[in-house]
Structure formats: structure tokens, C-alpha cells
Amino acid sequence: MAFELPALPYATNALEPHVDTKTMEIHHGKHHQAYVTNLNNAIAGTDAEKLSIEDICKNISKYPVAVRNNGGGHYNHSLFWTIMGPNAGGAPGGDLADAINAAFGSLDEFKKQFAQAATTRFGSGWAWLLVTADGKLAISSTPNQDNPLMDIADVKGTPILGCDVWEHAYYLHYQNRRPDYVTAFWNVVNWNKVAELYKAAKK
Ligand code: MN3
């Protein structure tokens, strides 16, 4: 079965003013759609057609670069839409809050380290909060459309929060001011979803 573009879980203007409508329309409708189309073309007639996107990522070293770029693009954006939302921001609660405090000292210190990973990623890529194989939280950044699920990642694990720092994610509204975009990102983080992903990753 071919991969499909998932519907956005909110309207394209729902994250205004932090993520503008035009960016959201192009980012979801054009960029993500292109990753899906190109992934389907890259795996057509191969065994990968039967696999989940997670399983493709976990064995990405076996695949051509088109699968790595577009499969990563599909996985990363599918996650990204869900960890943002309207009426979001604030702070996580429960086990996730405890885990962030244990790993980074405080939510503010976590945000600082995550923003550092996001703003210093040279060129295009992503910043991540992930759960490692031993159940610990870690921050990483990856180039292009790589992600922590991939067997080629420097820091491996299950991503539970990602910030897209490709220019297509912010340039229309923020131009070259990536740090401003990353600061605004915290206003749209759906911590309930991140907590749900944390719980699932810990199992
Ligand atoms: Mn993107």
C-alpha cells in the first residue's frame, strides 16, 4: 500500500501567529506531499512497500538515498504536525515533566539545550527530544531528513518531539531569524501529545 499524506490535525491558520498560514499550507500541502510522492516512487516494486515507515527508517542504511531523504521526510513531518497544536505551549506534566527535570535539571534548561541544538544545526535539519534504548531522554540534531530512528543516526532512539529547522519551515515569516522561530515554537508544542509519545516509547 502506498504511503499517504496525513491530514493536518488542525486548520492551516490554527498556529498563527507563531507558524503562519502560508507556511503551513506550503509546508504540509507541497513539501510533505512531495516527500510522500517521491517515497512511493522510490520504493515502487520493492519489499519496502510492505513495511511501516518506522521499519524503513530503522533499516535505512539498506536503502538508496531517495528512500532516506523522502522516507525521513514523511516520518518527520507526520510526527511534527502532531506535536504542535492550537491552545498549546505551557509546560508538560506528570512523568514527562519528572523525566525532563531528571535529565536536564529543569524545563527551562531543557528548552535552552534544545534551542541550542536547533539553532546550531548547520543548513537544513531537525532538533529532537528522544527516548534512548535505555529509556533515558536525550537531545540531538540530525541533518537533512535524517531522524533518531535511523540506524545511521549518531544518537539513536524514539523521537517524541521534533523541530523542523529547514528554511521552508520558517523563512516566509521569520526570514533568517531561526532563533526567533525556535523561541516561538514553544508556544505551539502540544505537550499532551509529547507525553503520550513518551509513555509509548518507554514501553
Ligand atoms: Mn519541513
Describe the structure.
- This protein has a three-stranded antiparallel β-sheet, with helices on both faces.
- The longest helix has 23 residues, at 21-43.
- The chain has eight helices and three strands, in the order H-H-H-H-H-E-E-E-H-H-H.
- It has helices spanning 21-43, 53-58, 65-82, 94-104, 107-120, 171-174, 178-185, 191-202; strands at 125-131, 137-143, 158-164.
- The protein is mainly alpha-helical and 203 residues long.
- The chain binds manganese (III) ion.
- Manganese (III) ion binds at residues 27, 31, 77, 164, 166, 168-169.
Major beta sheet summary:
3 strands, antiparallel
Q: What is the beta-strand fraction?
A: 5-15%
- Average pLDDT works out at 97
**Secondary-structure element sequence?**
HHHHHEEEHHH
The helix/strand class is: mainly alpha
Hetero ligands: manganese (III) ion
User: Helicity range of the residues?
Assistant: 40-55%
Radius of gyration: 16 Å
Q: Determine the number of helices (DSSP H or I, runs of at least 4 residues).
A: 8
Per DSSP E runs of 2 or more residues, the count of β-strands stands at: 3
Straight-line distance between termini? 28 Å
- Spatially, the strands of the biggest sheet line up as 2-1-3
Regions with little confidence, pLDDT below 50 for 5+ residues: none
Globular, elongated, flat, extended or rod-shaped: what is the shape?
A: globular
